[in-house]
Amino acid sequence: MPVNGQYTTHKVSNPSHGETVAGVLLRPKNVPNPPADEGYAAFIFDPRSVGDRTGQLRRQENPKTKNEDTVAGLNYLESRGDIDKSKLFLVGVCQGGPESLDVASYDDRVIGAAFVTGYFRDRETDIYICAGCVSAEPGADISTMKMPTAEQGEALYQARLKRARKAKALYERIGEVIYQPLVDPNAADPDKGHLLDSQDL
Which domains occur in the chain, in start order? Predict the structure, then answer.
């Protein structure tokens, strides 16, 4: 029977496309936190846009850079002398799920991949999230919220994409960051959320 806590933790950082990604490496002690308690080394890291890392942009949801950071993590593990390079396995949580599966599909160093509560984005889910099923109050009862019609949902979705493109263009032009909140009851309001501009949020 494994014993919890039979591992060591090491704060580490590794480069990823001009920035530094920070993480924690869990190494088993003499006996086999799953998975470290089971005898596996586990490298847990935050992608470039979150956590203790370098760079200006924060909380940017970008599957491409998350994939790049995952590959950088594999490079880091491969560079260590105490990791078996023939047994690299990916586990992704939430949006890390699809990224892990994607990286495993093209990086031959990965022998397997799994995900926990994977978030697989599609148009319907994006509209659902952007169009009223979000609340700034934790534990809000979604059944009591005013849900948009299909037309209102599409308008909210398109408005959010327009605000995001505008913010991205501004950043690329002059380096100014305008954050677009994922959870915002005003932006998700079925009647007027699609009328908001970036400066209104």
Answer: 7-121 (3.40.50.1820)
